[in-house]
Amino acid sequence: MRNPFQYGGVVSGQSFCNRTQEAADLRRAMENSEKWFVYSERRMGKTSLIRKVLAELPEEQYLTVYIDLWPTDGETSFVLACAKAFSEAMATNTDKLLHTAKTFFSRLVPAVTTNDEGKPIITFGFDQKRPDVPLLEEVLAMPAKAAKKEGKQVVVVFDEFQQILEYESDIVERLLRSSIQHQTDVAYIFCGSRKHLIRQMFMDSQRPLYRSGAHYPLGLIAEEHWQTFIDEKFTATGKGISAATITALCQLTEGHPFYTQHLCHPLWELCDEGEEVSSAMIGQATQLLLDRESYAFMNLWESLARNPRRLLRGLATEGPKVQIYASEFLRKYQLGSSSNVQRAIEVLLKKDIIDKEEGGVVIPDRFFRLWINSKQGA
Question: What is the pTM of this model?
Fold first, then answer.
């Protein structure tokens, strides 16, 4: 029997838990051609939610373009990622792909190959004979041109949008701001998983995209929704789980989609068919996960210097509301001074181990927190 709990990739169908209100909000934003910044901590299910909403839009009315910016590192790779996504969204066979690419991109030279499944894959080179053509402007103009040509509303999703902060200049941000202001038939959804960076992009008056769209933080899933979802999955597979046990599970994961489904996965395996999950099994499932992740966690831990480790110990022990600059905290965790804490924060933010919340910093990985606490004094 297949384990009903999915994690680690895009979750869809019956494996997707709730988000009914969020899906409705996003759909309205797309229907109204709005510009939204959607952000949350990592693994919160943004991509799964966005893909679900995109899939439900009627194809005869909408052209949807999904662009993952995580692999990009500058203007050139941004241009190529956009060109590829736009072309593949508008065409499905080799001839149409080539025609679309040649129609919209005057300086890019397209080539189409097929993968092992026979699906056409487009790549681009550059026409060196036309160095005067402004590539970035041409790519950013494509959504409006596509809307006019296809007679459809266009929805463009940039996932991991904070990646453009790693580019050498802010040219992409500046031209994007200029471009989207005039595209009334195009919805833009900017998704990010490093909350403090996304907030910086649209809340900092010095940034090009300041106040250029609505912001939509994606939160945790309430326990009431997990109660129904988890109970139904266990019941449908001939196993039982009590409401109290689900509550205990949610207290560990805080209702985070990835960590909740991740913990449910071994919990379901530990429970035999016809039996009910015991409270002891939660501890067993948690330890099983920590054992599986221990090697990765240990390598990460050993890559850190003394003060970042001490700060992590304090955050894992005291929780997100602790005053990390308070003298008591500094003394208890041997951090010495506020400047030491600030330097440790900078290191941990750069490594994406912590994230900034209003009023403090947190360790977003629930299992890493538990692992740190399990090693206290070791």
Answer: 0.89
